[in-house]
Design brief:
Catalyzes the phosphorylation of D-fructose 6-phosphate to fructose 1,6-bisphosphate by ATP, the first committing step of glycolysis. It catalyses: beta-D-fructose 6-phosphate + ATP = beta-D-fructose 1,6-bisphosphate + ADP + H(+). Belongs to the phosphofructokinase type A (PFKA) family. ATP-dependent PFK group I subfamily. Prokaryotic clade 'B1' sub-subfamily. It is found in: Cytoplasm. A seven-stranded mixed beta sheet has the order 3-2-1-4-5-10-11, sandwiched between helices. A four-stranded parallel beta sheet has the order 7-8-6-9, sandwiched between helices. It is built from eleven helices and eleven strands. Helix 7 packs across helix 8. Strand 7, helix 7 and strand 8 form a beta-alpha-beta unit. The chain is of the alpha/beta class and 324 residues long. The radius of gyration is 22 Å and the shape is elongated.
Length: 324
């Protein structure tokens, strides 16, 4: 394999640039020509593909976002769109791909291989940390620390005004950010999609705190919790408890996706980027590079896409014990 391309797709995550850098410099080390596809599958369809070299990725390891941009592509979901993408890759003689992204990215790559036999190796880039086949995904650690910084600041004002704050963090299908923020931020409770906690249970936890003369409380809510988002949960709690209870809601939103990646994310992204590249050069295909128990492994896209990665019961239990 003499020519490969790298792209980022789906939601951006801090550390993606470190991953791109590792892929490009690893390719240079192995004597492989490397291209960057701008705006993911959309760029592949449109032929927005640029040559990259070691100089191209200088001074990006510390930057958030992705220099290759990202986009979601409805056109790539069609057979016609994938044919256009294949034709553009053929024009440049690109023989393999490294995809940095999540489930949607890998689903597209698997379909693409089945139709056109262009091999892809993935690197897990998502702040949600919800991909089976790796202990941590690129961007997760930074997102947790960004959210935790906000939780700490909100704790100050909650304490000053004797308020209850419901803080919503990202995680439509995953409670990883929420559970770690709850533990590290000393929250009174956490609501995540993987573990149903009813409004009645939250009300009981808050009342127990008030009975112990707690003057303020923090509840972390993952945006995908079954009881609803933080606004809905807060309203239901107010309806069940004292209407004079001073409740505030903060939705952290996309602030969690941005920012300077932590040292951990830079190192993890570099390791996964190089691992994905070298796996591709060795003949791996339709797999995601991941790190499990500090060992680099490759997991088939099918497993990554279909298998669930549960939140540890120990972490859920820790929130209950440490908040009492």
């Amino acid at each position: 394999m003499k020519k490969i391309a790298v792209f980022t797709s789906g939601g951006d995550a801090p550390g993606m640039n470190a991953c791109i850098r590792a892929i490009v410099r690893g390719a240079a080390y192995h004597g492989v020509e490397v291209y960057g596809i701008v705006r993911g599958y959309n760029g592949m369809i449109k032929g927005d593909i640029i040559p990259l070299n070691s100089q191209s990725v200088s001074n990006i390891i510390q930057r958030g976002g992705t220099i290759l941009k990202s986009a979601r592509s409805k056109e790539f979901m069609t057979a016609e769109g994938r044919k256009k993408a294949y034709d553009k890759l053929q024009e440049l003689g690109i023989e393999g791909l490294v995809a940095i992204g999540g489930n949607g990215t890998f689903t597209g790559a698997e379909i693409f291989y089945n139709e056109y036999k262009i091999p892809t190796v993935g690197a897990p880039g998502t702040i949600d940390n919800d991909l089976y086949g790796t202990d941590y995904t690129i961007g997760f650690d930074t997102a947790v620390n960004t959210a935790l910084d906000a939780v700490d600041k909100i704790r100050d004002t909650a304490d000053s005004h004797d308020r209850v704050f419901f803080i919503e963090v990202m995680g439509r299908d995953s409670g990883y950010i929420a559970i770690q923020c709850a533990i590290a931020g000393g929250a009174e409770s956490v609501m995540i999609p993987e573990n149903l906690t009813s409004v009645d249970e939250i009300a009981a936890i808050l009342q127990k705190g008030f009975d112990k003369k707690k003057s303020s409380s923090i509840v972390i809510v993952a945006e995908g919790d079954e009881e609803g988002n933080a606004q809905i949960v807060a309203k239901n709690i107010k309806d069940k408890m004292d209407e004079n209870l001073d409740i505030r809601v903060t939705t952290l939103g996309h602030i969690q996706r941005g920012g300077i990646p932590t040292a951990y994310d830079r190192i993890l992204a570099s390791r996964l980027g190089l691992g994905a590249l070298e796996g591709l050069l060795r003949g791996e295909k339709n797999v995601m590079a991941g790190v499990v128990n500090n060992q680099l492994i490759y997991t088939p896209f099918h497993d990554t896409i279909t298998k669930k990665k549960p939140v540890s019961e120990d972490l859920i239990r820790m929130v209950e014990i440490l908040s009492s």
